[in-house]
Amino acid sequence: MKARTVLGNVVLGIGAVLAVGVFASTNPQETEATTLYRAYNPTSGEHLFTTNTIEIPYISQFGWRDEGTAWAVPSSGEPVYRMLNPNTADHHYTLSASERDNLKIKGWRYEGVAWYSGGKTEVFRMYNPNARTGTHHFTTDGNECDYLVRKGWKYEGVGFYSGTDEKPVEPEKPVTPTPVDPIGNSGILEKDLKVAGEKAEEIHNDPNSDYYYAWFAVHEPENDVPKGYAYASRQVKMSNGEYWYTIDFYVDYL
């Protein structure tokens, strides 16, 4: 996997194509990708990493080898910056804003956020001190990393992290058993009789409550007959065998 030091015309050609921006964007949000793809240029020794599904099929026409999936990437996380050396058509990827800015000073072109780093799988970064192009490589495969180190590459640590989006864990909602018996016209259902009684008292004494107007009004007689409003507590059997408490409101005609 040692990179050659001489660039062919094909490499320079595709480097120029990438440099002028034939591909709309390297932004992973615009391509809506959760997979990072990898291609290899046997002439330059460079590996290209991209979330853009049309980029690798395009450069395959120029001698690049489609190596399939590199690793999974999340839709958000730490941005991985993509850089292009217009003189060698070489790409580099880094999480470091200072490394990005230093390369820009040296003439590299900043191509935007290539993907996002996130997850728990380590992506190893290696450097080939003997190569002019394809000097850096990244992989989640420890065996590949060890092989390149034996070939003279220098291990530079963890470059990024790989992983898919982690779905938020929703807290478990308490399961309320369903009533087996009717719960009364009040709609009140409490496990504690005292709490149910307090709620009933609030409704009974509140002339502005929805219950007061919605229920009592339709039970008032047409003629002027003395009446009283009352309520009574009652047990309701639940589907799990427990007994909860409901309140029955009624109009007592005197």
Describe the fold and architecture.
- The protein is α+β, with helices and mostly antiparallel strands and 254 residues long.
- It is 22% helix and 32% strand.
- It has seven helices and eleven strands.
- The protein has helices at 9-19, 28-31, 55-59, 97-105, 142-150, 193-204, 210-216, and strands at 35-40, 47-50, 65-72, 78-85, 90-94, 109-117, 121-127, 136-139, 154-162, 227-237, 243-253.
- A three-stranded antiparallel β-sheet has the order 2-1-3. A three-stranded antiparallel β-sheet has the order 5-4-6, covered by helices on one side.
- A hairpin with an 8-residue loop joins strand 7 and strand 8.
- It is rod-shaped.
- The N and C termini lie far apart (100 Å).
Continuous helix count: 7
Q: How many beta-strand elements?
A: 11
On the 0-100 scale, what is the average pLDDT? 82
Radius of gyration: 35 Å
Strand order of the largest sheet: 2-1-3
Fill in the keyword field for this structure.
three-stranded antiparallel sheet, 254 residues, alpha+beta, disordered N terminus
Question: How would you summarize the topology of this molecule?
Answer:
Layout: H1 9-19, H2 28-31, E1 35-40, E2 47-50, H3 55-59, E3 65-72, E4 78-85, E5 90-94, H4 97-105, E6 109-117, E7 121-127, E8 136-139, H5 142-150, E9 154-162, H6 193-204, H7 210-216, E10 227-237, E11 243-253
Antiparallel strand pairs: 1-2, 1-3, 4-5, 4-6, 7-8, 7-9, 10-11
